């Protein structure tokens, strides 16, 4: 029969608080696991929509660039925190950033691309050119 022996060391409470804190809890968030957020791409008759899951960011953290047929989505956020407990100061600087580039089909009307950010989702609408939209079937009269 074995006996489990637990040993507890007495440490001052400020050291417990310092060493027992998660240094970077943001790395455990699903949106930034692996440093690139999840992306959905949806096509409809009217165009394409790209949705980027990026909770915790703000609209001002994003940059969208469209050059030739390359759409680049990037974000950068800097967070600073500082804690003072008695004689100890703990400072942390954290930078969250990502960049993703998509090659757009020639059917996209680059002049009409729009984006918005709401409730942690960056949504980019990429409308198709009129000539690229699927036309409904029609009957052709024989002359």
UniProtKB/TrEMBL annotation:
Domain of life: Bacteria
Keyword annotations: Stress response
InterPro entries, per the entry: A-crystallin/Hsp20_dom, HSP20-like_chaperone, Small_HSP
One Pfam family per UniProt: HSP20
Keyword Secreted: no
Domain SHSP: 30-143
CDD domains per the UniProt record, alphabetical: ACD_sHsps-like
Family of this protein: Belongs to the small heat shock protein (HSP20) family.
Name this polypeptide is given: 18 kDa heat shock protein
């Amino acid at each position: 029969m074995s006996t489990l022996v637990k040993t507890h060391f007495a440490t001052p409470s400020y050291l417990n608080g310092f060493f027992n804190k998660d240094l970077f809890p943001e790395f455990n968030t699903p949106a930034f696991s692996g440093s690139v957020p999840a992306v959905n791409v949806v096509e409809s008759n009217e165009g394409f929509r790209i949705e980027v899951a990026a909770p915790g960011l703000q609209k001002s953290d994003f940059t969208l660039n469209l050059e030739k047929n390359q759409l680049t989505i990037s974000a950068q956020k800097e967070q600073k925190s500082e804690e003072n407990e008695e004689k100890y100061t703990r400072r942390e600087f954290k930078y969250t950033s990502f960049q993703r580039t998509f090659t757009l089909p020639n059917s996209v009307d680059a002049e009409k691309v729009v984006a918005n950010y709401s409730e942690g989702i960056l949504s980019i609408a990429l409308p198709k050119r009129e000539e690229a939209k699927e036309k409904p079937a029609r009957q052709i009269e024989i002359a």
